[in-house]
Design a protein that fits this description.
Elements lengths: L3 E2 L17 H6 L3 E9 L5 E8 L4 H13 L5 E3 L2 E3 L1 E9 L7
Antiparallel strand pairs: 1-4, 2-3, 2-6, 4-5
């Protein structure tokens, strides 16, 4: 049986910036979780993205899609070989201050 390894955007060396929080959404207090389904090619580049789960706010959904399409990924693998595959990327827009 061939081993499958899903793509990832979390490798530290990728330096993917967080999505830009739309200023109007901040002002209006819009928050939510978006899940973007993205097709990652065998080199780790996004080829296509679609909204899997909406936050309920089109501005936040668009910001999430724009972000995942600008990121670099570690390509998924099948049987030890890089392969294009779909991957769900969850993004949370939260106005609460982080506790670093």
């Amino acid at each position: 049986m061939e081993e499958w390894v899903l793509p990832t955007q979390s490798a530290a060396y990728l330096n993917n910036p967080p999505p830009a929080y739309p200023p109007v959404s901040k002002r209006l207090g819009e928050q939510g979780r978006v899940v973007v389904r993205v097709l990652i090619d065998d080199k780790g580049w996004p080829q296509q993205a679609e909204l899997q789960t909406s936050s309920g706010y089109s501005r936040l959904d668009r910001a999430a899609i724009d972000a995942v399409m600008s990121w670099r990924y570690v390509a998924g693998q099948r049987g030890g070989r890089a392969q294009a595959m779909w991957f769900n990327v969850p993004i949370t827009f939260d106005l609460k201050p982080s506790r670093d």
